[in-house]
From TrEMBL:
Family of the protein in this entry: Belongs to the PNP/MTAP phosphorylase family.
Region (Disordered) location: 1-24
UniProt GO MF annotations: purine-nucleoside phosphorylase activity
One annotated Gene Ontology cellular component of this protein: cytoplasm
Record field: catalytic activity: 2'-deoxyguanosine + phosphate = 2-deoxy-alpha-D-ribose 1-phosphate + guanine; inosine + phosphate = alpha-D-ribose 1-phosphate + hypoxanthine; 2'-deoxyinosine + phosphate = 2-deoxy-alpha-D-ribose 1-phosphate + hypoxanthine; guanosine + phosphate = alpha-D-ribose 1-phosphate + guanine
Basic and acidic residues: bias regions: 9-20
Taxonomic superkingdom: Eukaryota
Pathway(s) where this gene product acts: Purine metabolism; purine nucleoside salvage
Gene (UniProt): PNP_1
Keyword DNA damage: no
Organism: Amphibalanus amphitrite
Annotated ranges, domain Nucleoside phosphorylase: 68-319
Pfam (any one): PNP_UDP_1
Protein name, per record: Purine nucleoside phosphorylase
EC class name: transferase
Length: 325
């Protein structure tokens, strides 16, 4: 029997209220220079026991015992609206959980049956631009792990860099480019917790080949091959969208779609041995020409996600059924 969960007050660190993200405080570091709060080495990731408290809170309140987790990207929360025997837990109520502050991210952990398969869903994710350190944006993945999840479906809204991609297309992610990681900003920075995984996890097979094969056959069954691609996702910190020069650089680097999420979750999922299937919905075509007057915006991202929700619900549902076999 799991330990009685402590009250929210006892364990919840100070978090921003919904809609009012905590500002990044500039603090003096040892050398007298300034550094941002989320880069301070002192802010250690939650340890195994702290994450167990969040997991136990959920395990004690849901009858479901899912092995599959789903992270819903911007505007993709409806992926989990049709779960049977649904049980939802607002992030605010879960000890130690961050809160969602972005439009299109509701802020609920939702358990239920998807095509008869028990799943645990994040209806809303966290991003570093909200003021959270990367480890905290990915902390729900560790909660999933302690709930019993061993495979995750990670989804996102992304800008299409590849000029063959159109709004509404799906990109099965075959690899990522971790731009924050190039600068040493990883969700695994700090003392390694062996309870979760090794100090130096490999990432060359981050996106499970067999699950990608399954996805391709699902896409065929659904008859949507023409609008589905396989490609490389690049993560930037945001929240500003990219300049034309940045997008041209990302294209040169081999990126097909760009976003501000997913990579930290995938790194943490792989660190703790989970299988990962991930896809991007292309919600906007990236602006690659300097003479264009267009600009990316979040409203168009949400609208594009909404327009494709039925296909995506079906894709996720069929994948969950295959992953459960
Ligand atoms: O990656 P998700 O959460 O789907 O959201 C994407 O959409 C937002 C920008 O419109 C950014 O948060 C970007 O990462």
């Amino acid at each position: 029997m799991a330990a009685e969960p402590a009250s929210d007050l006892e364990f919840r660190a100070a978090e921003p209220e919904k809609g009012s993200p905590r500002p990044l405080r500039a603090l003096a570091s040892g050398g007298g220079s300034m550094c941002l709060e989320h880069t301070l080495p002192g802010e250690a990731a939650f340890d195994y026991n702290t994450i167990s408290i969040s997991a136990n809170y959920l395990l004690e309140r849901t009858k479901h015992r899912p092995a599959i987790g789903i992270v819903c990207g911007s505007g993709l929360g409806s992926l989990v609206d049709h779960l049977k025997e649904r049980e939802a837990f607002p992030y605010e109520k879960i000890p130690n959980f961050p809160v969602s502050t972005v439009a299109g991210h509701d802020g609920q952990v939702v358990f239920g049956l998807l095509n008869g398969v028990p799943v645990m869903c994040m209806k809303g994710r966290f991003h570093s631009y909200e003021g959270y350190p990367l480890w905290k944006t990915a902390m729900p993945i560790r909660v999933m792990k302690l709930v019993g999840v061993n495979s995750v479906i990670v989804t996102n809204a992304a800008g299409g860099i590849n000029d063959k991609y159109h709004v509404g297309d799906v990109m099965l992610i075959k690899d990522h480019i971790n731009i924050p990681g190039f600068a040493g900003n990883s969700p695994l920075v700090g003392k390694n917790d062996e309870n979760f995984g090794p100090r130096f996890p490999g990432m060359s097979n981050a996106y499970d080949k067999q699950l990608r094969q399954e996805a391709k056959s699902v896409v065929k069954e659904m008859g949507i091959e023409e609008s589905v691609h396989e490609g490389v996702y690049v993560m930037l910190g945001g929240p500003s969208y990219e300049t034309v020069a940045e997008l041209r650089l990302l294209r040169l680097l081999g990126a097909d779609a760009v976003g501000m999420s997913t990579v930290a979750e995938v790194v943490v999922a792989r660190h703790c041995g989970m299988r990962v299937f991930a896809f991007s919905l292309v919600t906007n075509k990236c602006i690659m020409e300097w003479d264009s007057d267009e600009e990316a915006n979040h409203e168009e991202v949400i609208a594009a996600a909404n327009a494709r929700k039925h296909h995506l619900q079906e894709l996720v549902g069929r994948m969950a059924a295959r992953m459960a076999q």
